[in-house]
Specification:
Elements: H1 9-12, H2 18-25, E1 28-30, E2 36-38, E3 44-46, H3 64-73, E4 78-80, E5 89-91, E6 99-100, E7 106-110, H4 133-144, H5 163-172, E8 185-189, E9 192-196, H6 204-207, H7 218-224, E10 238-242, E11 249-253, E12 287-290, H8 296-304, E13 310-312, H9 315-321, E14 322-324, E15 330-332, H10 334-337, E16 340-355, H11 360-363, H12 366-374, H13 378-384, E17 390-392, H14 405-408, H15 417-427, E18 438-443, H16 447-461, E19 467-472, H17 474-482, E20 488-490, E21 494-495, H18 502-505, H19 525-534, H20 541-557, E22 560-573, E23 576-577, E24 592-593, H21 595-600
Parallel strand pairs: 3-12, 18-19, 18-20
Antiparallel strand pairs: 1-2, 4-5, 6-7, 7-9, 8-9, 10-11, 11-12, 13-22, 14-15, 16-20, 16-21, 16-22, 17-22, 23-24
């Protein structure tokens, strides 16, 4: 997936209506005297978003910022356990993991009973109805519709009997997602359905945990039409009260949410206090306030004043707040350690630069692309811009996943101006002469992205290559990339949708070209054969050999330039509890706040 707050009714939060505050409190009493009184003060979390969301319609989004918000409003059939490591799937909307028949291709899915959609005007009387099997079947077919979903179809492509044919038909004429038959999708009873796979598929269950395949209500889609993307109606832990792409998002606790806090976790979690809330009804926080704060310095100032509860640390503040430990780790300086908690974890995301293979200049000149690879100073960026918070990639797979460079032995070149100059001469542009400035598209407009561009521009200029930047917000940059309007593009990177290397190699699969995730428009028969051979294999030497082949092709053809496996790094207020960084399951519904400590600022 393309990719890091106290209510006292209207008095302290003027934008929150009295009705919203009462609903957010989770429990309240009606008094005989005029008005109402809260039984307890609502818990409110303040979190600064870094960029606008694209859409809150599950099938029309597939970027990190939108996906995190979608998963607040919607439940998925399966989800990733919050505390367990390595990551593992567990039931969410389902009673239990799907049952696999003896043929190994027929799955039976049983929904939990009593799960309800959020109360919304799209339902009779405004009261949310129960989630049933027909909703799941409707949503899978809507997900497969070629005219609606161009971003995440790869997760089920070729997997379900008849679903690809349904998608092909939807590309030619409108289809009825409620009534159109799909051979591999069957309703068994009100809360049970079956899915028949085209072949045994170890990856399929992962597709039931991504934000795009969540269950939606046909009534909401019908009522809101093209505004469904800002009017989410789901079964998730929060209900959206106010949706502004570039303003403040406010989410209110769903009092009917079905999950509880986990009672087990990874070794050491109990000692860290992460199981103190075991068995408590989720979510634990009543209101989520999410203003858009794109610039790092204003966001950190708000955090330091206690106006935000959790924040990533930017480069400038890192040098003030953090120091390296003798073992190579990080810790807050004594001044800040007394006030805040730090976290850092090797992420499940990779960053890279896309090169446009359809561009006549870039796509038609391999020596030029190879020169650009040698002019990308990834290690320098890690040292200078990221304060050491990352590891230079040798393959496209995050280091913690099976099939990464640790398993394949992949190699990858680094910054080498002399080699770049030799390649430029081979490409027909000695010392950059005759090479026009290259359009370098950047997803982001903050000082962070501009500083990173200036760093890259200086490195490329060392060999005579000039860059011309185009900065825009993430949704705009993605739309431009999908249209092929770039030569070089820094779109951020890819965050794992599921913990498997295939999720990253599909980024260059020929069938996934834009508007799919293959923004480089790379089409290579040898790469595609290796991908198709490895896709559904179990991890092991044979699969890893295919990964090595694909990585060698990436290194030689250079449709993208591999960069960094980031370290996710940030600070949180000491009053924020149950915090464990989880990149596959949104943390918000598990978090808790000590409001007394927050009010005192301690």
């Amino acid at each position: 997936m393309s990719f890091d707050s106290q209510v006292h009714l209207q008095r302290l939060m003027p934008g929150l209506t009295r009705r919203e505050a009462l609903a957010a409190a989770g429990s309240f009493s009606l008094l005989s005297l005029p008005g109402m009184a809260l039984a307890q003060e609502p818990k409110v979390l303040h979190y600064g978003r870094l960029s606008p969301f694209d859409s809150l319609d599950p099938i029309r989004q597939f970027d990190l910022d939108s996906s995190e918000l979608v998963q607040l409003c919607y439940g998925t059939l399966l989800a990733y356990a919050y505390l367990d490591r390595p990551y593992k799937l567990e039931p969410d909307l389902l009673e239990r993991l799907p049952e696999v028949a003896a043929d190994k291709v027929t799955l039976t899915l049983r929904l939990r009973k009593g799960i309800r959609f959020h109360d919304n005007a799209c339902f009779p009387g405004g009261k949310g109805r129960e989630l049933v099997a027909d909703d799941v079947l409707y949503s899978i077919k809507r997900y497969a519709d070629a005219k609606l979903n161009s971003k995440s179809w790869f997760a089920m492509e070729g997997a379900v009997v008849g679903l690809d044919a349904f998608r092909a038909a939807s590309a030619k004429a409108p289809v009825d997602h409620r009534t159109a038959p799909v051979e591999g999708l069957k309703r068994i009873d009100s809360h049970t359905l079956s899915i028949k796979l085209t072949r045994e598929n170890p990856l399929f269950l992962f597709s039931l945990a991504i934000s795009s395949t969540t269950a939606v209500a046909h009534e909401a889609v019908a009522m809101y039409g093209d505004q469904f993307g800002v009017n989410p109606v789901g079964t998730g832990p929060y209900m959206i009260s106010k949706a502004e792409r570039k303003g403040v998002l406010r989410f209110l606790k769903n009092p009917n949410y079905h999950q509880s806090y986990p009672s087990t976790g990874a070794p050491g979690d109990a000692e860290k206090g992460l199981l103190k809330s075991a068995g408590r009804k989720l979510p634990l926080i009543d209101v989520l306030e999410m203003p858009l704060i794109e610039e790092p310095q204003p966001g950190m100032l708000k955090f330091l004043k206690g106006e935000l509860d959790w924040r990533g640390v930017d480069r400038a503040n890192f040098t003030k707040m953090v120091r390296r430990k003798p073992d190579g780790g990080f810790e807050l300086t004594p001044e800040f350690a007394a006030k805040f908690e730090i976290y850092n974890v090797l992420g499940v995301a990779v960053t890279y630069i896309n090169l446009n293979m359809k561009d006549p200049l870039i796509g038609g000149n391999k020596a030029l692309r190879q020169a650009l690879l040698h002019l990308t100073d990834t290690q320098g960026e890690i040292d200078v811009l990221l304060n050491g918070r990352g590891q230079k990639l040798k393959s496209i797979v995050p280091l913690e996943f099976p099939g990464s460079e640790r398993d394949t032995g992949a190699t990858y070149p680094g910054y080498d101006v002399a080699r770049a100059k030799a390649l430029l001469a081979q490409a027909g542009f000695p010392d950059g002469k005759g090479l026009p400035p290259l359009l370098y598209r950047v997803a982001g407009t903050s000082s962070t992205e501009r500083t990173a561009f200036d760093f890259a521009k200086a490195r490329y200029a060392a060999a005579g290559v000039q860059l011309r930047a185009e900065f825009s917000d993430y949704p705009t940059a993605i739309k431009a990339a999908e249209a092929g309007n770039f030569q070089i593009a820094n779109l951020g990177g890819w965050v794992a949708d599921y913990p498997d290397a295939e999720n990253f190699y599909q980024l260059l699969y020929g069938k996934n070209v834009s508007p799919g995730p293959n923004h480089s428009a790379f089409a290579n028969a040898a790469y595609d054969r290796a991908y198709e051979a490895a896709r559904l294999m179990s991890n092991g030497p044979q699969r890893f050999a295919h990964f090595r082949t694909m990585n060698d092709i990436i290194k030689d053809e250079v449709p993208m330039i591999l960069r960094v496996n980031n370290v996710r790094f940030g600070v949180r207020q000491k009053w924020l509890g149950n915090f464990k960084r989880n990149e596959l399951a949104p943390e918000f519904k598990y978090l808790d706040i000590d409001m007394a400590a927050k009010k005192k600022g301690i």
